[in-house]
Amino acid sequence: MGTIEGRKPQVVLVPFPHQGHITPMFQLGAILSSRGFSITVAHTEFNSPNPSNHPEFNFLLLPDSLSGCESSYMNSLNEILAINKNSKERFHEYMVEMLETQEQHGQVACVVYDTLMHFVDEVATRLELPTVALRPNSAAYLRSDHVILQLQADNLIPLPESQLQDAIPTHPLLSIRSSSAIIWNSVDMLEHESLVELQRHYKVPIFPIGPFHKMAPKFNTSLIAEDTSVITWLDKQAPNSVIYISIGSLAIMDKKELIEMAWGLANSDQPFLWVVRPSSVSGSEWIECLPEGYEELTRESGCIVKWAPQKKVLAHPAVGVFWSHSGWNSTLESMCEGVPMICRPYFADQVVNTRYLTNVWKIAIELEDPERKGIEKTIRTLMRDKVGKELRQRALKMKQELELSVQKGGSSWNSLENLVEFIMSFTQ
Ligand code: UDP
Prior knowledge:
This protein is α/β, with parallel strands linked by helices. The protein is 43% helix and 14% strand. The site of uridine-5'-diphosphate has 19 residues, from α1, α12 and α13.
């Protein structure tokens, strides 16, 4: 492969520097690397990856001037603006250098960038370098953005309270920037309708080649150290008995919610593996605000850690339910292991994903009452009632269908073949 004699074509990746965005971009890098491309990652100083975990990639450091800035969802708009402003010129210099040395290192085929890193598109347009956008979240989420923008343009927002639960009529979609294609960490069988609608709107090819983590060789992209002792703890639990709880890398809760969760879990009489990320409870460093004696009381049934090897946890036979914030990576990881979910969304795509998980794919229940009684009831429904059994059966069926999608001849496999061919066409 490669148009410059003996050299692999190069693909440059530009991830947005948060866990839920870095992971799919690196997985995509691994997928493209296994298909014969040489991968260079241009990354910010903030949340910079560990190059030693990825010896097959080259790395370029972008200045971002974010050091010391508070990292949270609430601050993410400032982060996005600062990165886009501060990284652009250096990125331009890197690209000029790469283009000048293509003879030695292989032709630069294209830049794949997270759509939040829009400076890339500007630089690449200046240099006449093709770009491909990566959407690390569901197609349904982008579709919902379009609908909201259109409702706004039609002066229909805010909707009257009486209409908040009504289905929204289909609206024409709006336009975006100048990428040559869009890659989705999604699967045709999950999001066929949304993908078809988005394809109709964006005139460029769309490649749903997910779930990336099932298409990519396994490697670690965690920004926080994983507590691997949880696997030994899970080994001691009965099959399908454990509730695994994690709200991802950004969501934050208040102390009252943590305490209600703690009692809801303890009262459910099910074993639980609970990830409480440091600083994820406002005003607390970790779990110091749990009721006195709580850890002693739940010593037998509970395991609380700061960060877990989530994909391995979900694949463990002891795990029966995933209580999640419904981030897109977590959603796909749970689906791929056939684990039904309890959804407690906090913001952004988590709300849309929850709607799909509960109403379309029907493999989850939304936690509507986050107080201890509501939690206990939801857990019991999922673990012990007929409804829970049905959700589990559907989740297992979905797992099998997803397995077929990534196998030779499956939709994601075929879409990847087309993507590779598409990127190669830039080197002709
Ligand atoms: N994750 C993990 N260990 C944990 C909690 C989360 O490895 O204890 C990983 C999880 O596997 C997923 C990512 O962090 O790949 C979270 O991404 P997601 O899109 O679900 O949520 P976000 O963090 O972007 O809100």
